[in-house]
Design brief:
Among the domains are: 58 residues; 114 residues, Tetrahydropterin Synthase, Chain A; 51 residues, no CATH class. Helix content is 66%, strand content 13%. The strands form three sheets. Strands 6, 7, 8 and 9 form a four-stranded antiparallel beta sheet that branches. Strands 3-2-5 form a three-stranded antiparallel beta sheet, with helices on one face. Helix 1 packs antiparallel against helix 2 and helix 4 packs antiparallel against helix 6. The longest helix has 145 residues.
Length: 417
Amino acid sequence: MSARLKAVVQAIRESLAQLAGQARRPLAATGHGLAAHRGKLLAIGLLGIGVYAAASHSPLQTVGRGELGVRSNALTGSVAQFREGSVLVLPGVHELRRYPLRDQLYRPAASSRADGPAPFQSIEGLSLGVDLTIRYALDPARVADMARNLPDDIGGEVVEPVVQGVIYKTFTRYTVREIFSSKRAEIQQAIEAELKPRLAADGILLRSVQMGKVDLPADYRAGMDKLLAEELETEKMRYTLELKDKQVKQTALEAEAEKVRREKAAEAAGNEQVIAARAQEEAMKHVLPFKQKQIEQRQFEAEAEKLARIKSAEGSAQARRIEAEGEAESRQKLADAEVYRLEKIGKTSSEQMARDGALIDKHPLLIQKTLADKLSDKISVIIAPPPADGGFIGSALIGGARTNAQAQAAETEGEAQ
């Protein structure tokens, strides 16, 4: 019931309550007013009953978003379609049916497992489960015809039987291996191609058929896994052999390319040597005169160097002769000077010795003084008695006195004999 209808019903109830209160007061005062108010009360009651019936059984019904409403008239048999919004539906006259226009999914859950309640059968008679998803939608242009001919539960009473009949029949044409691996796309296309016209005949548009997981029996899966492993090993070996063959071909091509490259390199090296020899021959034409000029220049330079060395040697010899003459003259002068010096020293020494002899003859004790002076760095104090005979004081120190005594003793002994 809408809010507006609730407000209308509430207002009628309040009006009836007010009229009932007003009617009680005049009726209590006079009996004539009772007859006058009965007609009004009856009209108001009928009006209230009508409003209550309209409020409890509203003639306005709503078609939701993504739905299509089909209203059929029981009196005339006409059919009208309505999109999202409110639709007037008179009780006993109109009947409104709503149909979804969005895409719908049908998934046969009972057939998704090989050990389920309704598994599929292959051409070998083996049970297998397939996860199928059927996506469909109602044709908006044919919903009116569907409303007359089709049941209310279109998915359970129309789509499901048709899909079951098609997919069971389709799977029985293929082996388990084809269903599992090699012909999945073909099976999907076959199911879709057969389902589309059958569902279109009932006003249903088939969007797509998706085939998901395939559940195989345990024994068959084990054997297939082993077979797949062997096939994979075979494929691996084949790819390995192909790879080896390609490697051999690649090696041969690389060897051939290396051979061609070396031939080209040798040819290029030979051409380069020929070009270098020709260039060298051309260069020698200009180099030989230059070399000849260099030889001549070196000969001239050698002659010039020879003359320079001769001149230098002559100059050096003349300088050495001059130096030798100078040195001989200098040595002669030094020798003359040395002779003169020695002569002067000899004369001076002789004169000094003559003076010393005269002085000693005059003063004999100078010899002792001289001896003391000479021994002064060896002897600090000398205490010696003077000789009795007035001789040399040093004879007592060096044993002269003992010798004299021995001589005197010998002389005395000689005289005694």
